[in-house]
ABC transporter permease (Allokutzneria oryzae), 255 residues
Amino acid sequence: MRAAFRGLAGVAGLLLLWELFGRSELVPPGYLPPPSVVLVSLVNLVLDGKFVFDVIATVLAWAIALGIATAVAVPLGLVLGSAPAVRRATRTVVELLRPIPSVALIPLVIILFGGGPEAKIVLAVYASVWPILFNTIYALDELDPLLVDTARVFGTSRPRVLATVALPSAAPFVMTGIRTSAAIALIVVVSTELLAGSALGLGQFILTAGSGGGQMDLVLAGTVVAGLVGYLVNAGFEWVQRRYFAWGARAEEPA
């Protein structure tokens, strides 16, 4: 409760400074609407069905991208983390692809997939797959060899060892990677909607609102909603991590 109170106090302080700054003469009128104005615009937008569809489109694309990235990165990480020869053979390719910014691939993705929701999903998958992949690989590096040897003594096959021994041991690290990738995927989805254009989405709404004069309240309202979605996503994954994977954090603490 004390931590929650401090968090609310910080938000209240930020809104107060924003209100004072927005109503002062330090910025030209209309450049930075105060939160009281943005809140009214936000309520009106929530009552507008089209804006709700924009939010749903962004969240749906984010969820699909994160699900695909997890489904790809976890098995691939298990393979690379458990097979040193494969890991060494693919290291150059992985290290070459990983630093490429997702936004730099927007023209190529649009040519291949068009400007529909597929483009932002593909780019979000590309950006969010890396934290999950490397967290899975590094988790297997920390796996106790005694656990693997014991499973093999009892005749457990290699795939079953990965599924019943390696994956549960790596689960806290994998969850950390998923939580990081969740934020990255949301950023990439909104950025792609903003830069590449889209029929629906928060990024497209912000772009459309920003292209018209005197609509900074709508721009900020859309930005606030994007921030709220990101906060809720992170808080949800943080709760899941504390609720179901807290044992991983305790196991890492020194005795």
User: Anything to note?
Assistant: The domain at 39-252 is CATH 1.10.3720.10 (MetI-like fold). Residues 179 and 196 are 26 Å apart (CA to CA). Residues 158-196 form the longest helix (39 residues). The chain is about 80% helix and 0% strand.
